[in-house]
Amino acid sequence: MQADRISIGQFLSRRSGGKRVNTADALTYLYLTVGTILMFGPVLWLVASSFKTQAGLVKYPPPLLPYQQVQVDVEGFDKPLPLYTVTGEDGTVSELAQVRRVGIEAQMVDPAEPDAEPIKVNIRQREPVEEVKLAWENYFDPLIELENFDFFTYLKNSVLVTTFATAITLVINSMAAFALSKYRFKGRDAIFVLFISTLMIPITVILVPVFLVITSIGWKNNLWGVIIPGAATPTGIFLLRQYMLTIPDELLDAARIDGASEWHIYWRIILPLARPALAVLAIFSVMWRWNDFLWPLIVLSQNDYFTLQVGLNAFQGELQIQWHYVLAMTVVTLLPITLVFAFLQRFITTGIATTGMK
Amino acid sequence: MRFLSILEPLTRPLLLLLVTAIDGILKPIQQRIGVNKMGYFFVLPNLLIFGIFVLFPMLLNFYYAMTGGTKLFPADRPFVGLDNFATLFDCENFSQPNSCQEDLFWRGIFNTIQFVIFQVSGIVLFSLITALVLNRNIVARGFFRSVFFYPVLLSPVVVALIWKWILQHEGVLNAILEIFGGESMRWLLDTNWAMFWVVFVSVWALMGFYTLILLAGLQSIPPELYEASSIDGANTWQDFRFVTMPLLMPTMFVVLVLSLIRAVQMFDQIFVLTGGGPGTRTQLMVQYIYTTGFSNQIQLFGLSAAASMVLGVSLLILTLLQLRLGNQSSLA
Q: How far apart are alpha carbons B215 and B213 in whole angstroms?
């Protein structure tokens, strides 16, 4: 009994409890805290920065939250005026709105008494009054008026590429996986080996000839040129075939006896049963296509056909980086993937853990 | 996936029609060739796309590597034999990229080697530590696992922009450093620091993926083994050294090989983050292939293809090494 208790105690102490392990626990949580800050902090910083105005972004050191100067409406002035805290010569503090600035002198007016004579104040005596306010215009301006950044077009292109490519990949990969797992025909194993052997050969190795093929078909500056070349993924075939091998052949034979055609079997039996594997592949494919960069960069050279990633890269590569827009559009670009992750997290993590692929 | 069901009344009849039509075409074929040969039909679409966009280009790449000029179409390209390779390997002293005709290529190779060594060790080290930590009895394990995994999903462009913003001269990193009395730097324009940050950012972005694989490996170790070792009086370090490590070795090997193969192909993140700079300090092999063939004014497709074959051969060697060592480690 006693021995039992000790061994169980030791077993538990490997992870928690016990004197020696307390330091280990402390280190564990320290690591997790630092890790969380390092992994998540940069993304949060991006989001916080994306809500700052252009003027707010050049402030150094950068404030943590997006501040904007308070603007007040003053009677007799068309536009709202910026508000300042003014410290007078005698040490009195008052909040005044600035009418205009001439050199180092600012003409200020008390918002409470708009009709009074403007007060002249040295600009060193005034401090802007600020409040936390989100600069939503960073998000909305690019939708309408930005010249070199046609956000809607890029978004549309990215969505088109992602959906069509994923649909095509799912259909042709599942058909091929079905053939390779459930039929005996000459050359089957050779075809399988051929597919799988390219698992480690990325498109980077064959850029030039694939570009020739695309150009010959007339798919340069065409979304099909982005969609089709990567559709026959070896990863998908491998994943689906492994899964379909677990579907019993008897099921198919029974269907055949009932007079089902092969296509019918594929559509009515194999696809529904392979749904978990298809879901994993679908998530992977969405991730691959949404984030794809090098190949779209080569195929698409005209602004109208850019995907979000290519468009964002071109936009941030301009001589004067308009950070306030770049940051906001970066947030928009990472949003869909973040949502997918939030909802389908379990699928993604188990999918990667079981296949070892991404 | 629930929200997709809204579309069902719309897509269902269309799909049904399509499926029935395909069935109508296929039935007579099936009667003609028999059930087993239908396999050819099912494998055909994938095989076709694979053949046109992977297999054929792979063969054509050899031809490109052996032709010169700036024309894209093979018929317009003069045959030059192994000239492209001779150009790439034209070096007085292979340890000095400056003495090479294609100095950018050699710089790319040296930078890639350096990048691969640091990035892969960083990934293996940190994903192992993180997996070990996540495998302990901690609260909110799912949350922490997600935190470390989340950057994996971000696109390379997004990752690069996030860090470009942090690392710029008026960025938050310099501000934090100054609070602690440090000196602000132009991190990405500094020859010594640029490579560090390029490695750091890619470890940051990718380690969650390998952590997940290692975590799966750790969790597949049967708890009875730890029970047995604790009966034998093993301490934490001995647990790790004699139970965890040997059983985790195959998974570690997978992580090592996968991260190696991906590190050799690194491109997009660095391209957006530093553009290969300062100068050519962070320009890797794939960027050389891209610039030579596609973004330079004069597009040297032959040279680009030849360089891509050098890349392909290095990947092949890595893959073969994996098969070789993988077999050995599974035998041992």
A: 5
